[in-house]
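Please check this today:
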Amino acid sequence: MLGSKLDIFKKEWTDVIFKGRNKEYGAYELRQQNSRSTNLALLIGSAVFVFILSINTIVNAIEGFIPKAPTVVKLTDVKLLPPPPVDPAKKPPPPPPEPPKPKVDQVKFPPPVVKPDNEAKEPPPTVAELKTADPGQNNQKGDPNQDINIDGPVGNSDAKVTEADPNQVFAAVEQEPEFRNGGAAGFNAYLAKAVKFPAVDRENGTSGKVIVTFVVERDGSLTDVKVLRAPSPTMGDAAATAVRSSPAWKPGVQNGQKVRVQFTISFAFSLADADQ
């Protein structure tokens, strides 16, 4: 009756366990309906699991039956304004000046291209020609009175190229000078360590802002240090001394050349910092 496989939920085992006992007790009913309850729970769980996996497909199917609102395209007329009237009295800007002549004669030297001899239209200059002339883009007569021009363009002008004053001080340039050790933040950190709060000002309770101007030279050094404003002469001297002792900067650049640039800085003397 029991067999080799033990199953305590079989009806025969249930009757043996509850023999002579109260079968109206809930445990007997639970054992009797165990198989049905287990199958029902498995069926419901499987149905819920399949529903969760298919919810996206169901939503897409429902949206397919709902008609979408037509796309509204708003057309706007674009009105092109007429060009401004040409003022006949206003002359157009002049063309750029003709580059100066080279110092040495130039002979046209075309870029080398490998071709058969019968297709060569412009033979390269001979060795004899290159002894008395430099290779260039065109045949150009030189002027011994001109300055040597290596990378610049050449033309037929007799005017010499004038260089800018090397001592000119610029207020703004294409590439501003920069403190080598960290830029503006690095220079502020340097000043915080280098500037010493004057003892007499600390005793008198003097504080305020100091404005200093200086020139960054072409080699990166700082010159022409001047104090424009200071709460006291001793504070101005302390700030100027720290600026003069600054490490070298990266010089400013204008038109590809290093130039002198004027700089103005300001920083504050605070009693709170002096007490630390």
Q: What stands out?
A: The chain has a mean pLDDT of 76. The radius of gyration is 47 Å.
